[in-house]
User: Fold this.
Amino acid sequence: MINRFEKIQLAHGSGGLLMQELIRELLLKKLYNPFLSELRDSALVNFKKERLAFTTDSFVVSPIFFKGGDIGKLAVCGTINDLVVEAALPCYLSLSLIIEEGFSFLDLERIVNSIAFYAKKNKVYVVTGDLKVVEKGACDKIFINTSGIGRVIKEGLSIREIKPQDKIILTGTIGEHGLSILSGRKNTPLDFGIRSDCSALTDLLLPLLKKNLKIRFMRDPTRGGLATTLNEIASELNYCIMVEEESIPIKNKVKVACELLGIDPLYLGNEGKAVLVVEKKDASGVLKILKKHPLGKDASIIGEVINQKGKNVLLKTLSRGIRILEPLRQDPLPRIC
Amino acid sequence: MINRFEKIQLAHGSGGLLMQELIRELLLKKLYNPFLSELRDSALVNFKKERLAFTTDSFVVSPIFFKGGDIGKLAVCGTINDLVVEAALPCYLSLSLIIEEGFSFLDLERIVNSIAFYAKKNKVYVVTGDLKVVEKGACDKIFINTSGIGRVIKEGLSIREIKPQDKIILTGTIGEHGLSILSGRKNTPLDFGIRSDCSALTDLLLPLLKKNLKIRFMRDPTRGGLATTLNEIASELNYCIMVEEESIPIKNKVKVACELLGIDPLYLGNEGKAVLVVEKKDASGVLKILKKHPLGKDASIIGEVINQKGKNVLLKTLSRGIRILEPLRQDPLPRIC
Assistant:
């Protein structure tokens, strides 16, 4: 329960439990409507006779330039992905910039170039925008909000459709985005040579939806990482999810870096990956298609929904048996997006 | 021309000339598409067979609570108004919060209450959201982005439709929002008892569009005030706009405060007013309808488009003859929205 006389903590924005609590107990309660209450990555709404997906994200990542991307690329890809995982074809983006006085024009140009490049590459138009400049010290360099509108191409994807024996597929390796941001932090002069996975998933995921394959649900494991996303799913089920540790694709250098830093890669944010819940009989078919795409070449079936009452994620490890995989509580690495 | 080796200044976000330059020379050039290039308050786009208006605004106002409103009310009303002036019925809002670590939960609750109240009052749903918390010092208390989707109820409003002899109507008194923010600033212990005009204009403006009245164009004079909005319009015409000073409705206490502070109310931001350009024959009809609504009771015909080549706004004063009314260059009052 939220204590109303407390202060907002960093963990309220981490994607973990405290954030869920704040969203449910304050925002959802006060702003309640049937669209918002689903807490989807994009709201699915009626627009006259059409179905539309609508999403928003503010990006406050630090540093704003990192290996494999920058805040502009992250904004475009992040918003596209929030539409795509809701089975919507991204069409239009808005772009709102909050810039700190004294920010370098060349850096702004570099970010806008990146936005333009990734918008064009992914066939979305930036159609509307806003620009605010605040005094030095009133924001950290630049914050970007991108909201997006997509055309729903397939209805019915929902956590509520998930059933026991459904397979959990992860579209690729995890942890790269979080580690790339960590390496880029001023106060961590570490360089593991790890590039962010930041990518738009339109071409990887939308073609799948046009095939006769029973995909129940998709979500991208960003803040809070894979562990938190799986817990978000499990918390809405009446069953547990069992995941096998050795089937989770992680690059060797990510493993090494995580060991050195004492970080669990399952909690590191990603921005070019998705978790798919697929009916058992179609899992190998989905995997085969994913693997044909460069962004899905490391895709793997990492677990399944098991016929065991509960709302937990269970992690089966080779060395330590089965343990409960908790959602994120405190974020070890704020501002990854 | 922008000097790429310069730094971003506060004036780049003021709504005035420097901002226009930055938008046109960087953002519009790099992100060009026919929707964005119109630089409307909302983009008007095709969505399958429907026409949709899409807008975005980030609110960084300081102080976040002021006489007549708060950042939450401002966000909802501001985004609604950007849809309404493009002849769109506001339907859906997104809400993205960037909160500084240590922010008071009670203040957040107060802001969310305000958002909920004004969304409900104006029949829009907040359907999707995002929440980021940044370290102390990385933002000033709270920034809010609201993006909005509206249903276009009338096509064809455009600056390009404006012709000589068209009348300029202002829906009410100006300057209150800017002065209310100024009074609320920590370093200006002035209290003129002036409340922000922050209001949603849906009920005032949309009914007008359903009548057989030739409204060419509408815009809300926010950042940069009435003078800047009129200049934005004139800069797209091949004619001048002539405005009569004494017909511009300004509350007496606003006049007094502006004189004391040496501020020109024509450059003060508003958030509950609109400028309408109306065909001459329909101007009195529009005025009559506006005046019936509480938000339009002070509406006034303040000038007209004159058959004189140029792109200037001319201000006719009783005492000093006619002078050119320039757009805002440097903002005397940043972060009013």
User: Anything to note?
Assistant: The longest strand of chain A covers residues 88-100. Chain A has a mean pLDDT of 95. Chain A touches chain B through 83 residues (CB under 8 Å).
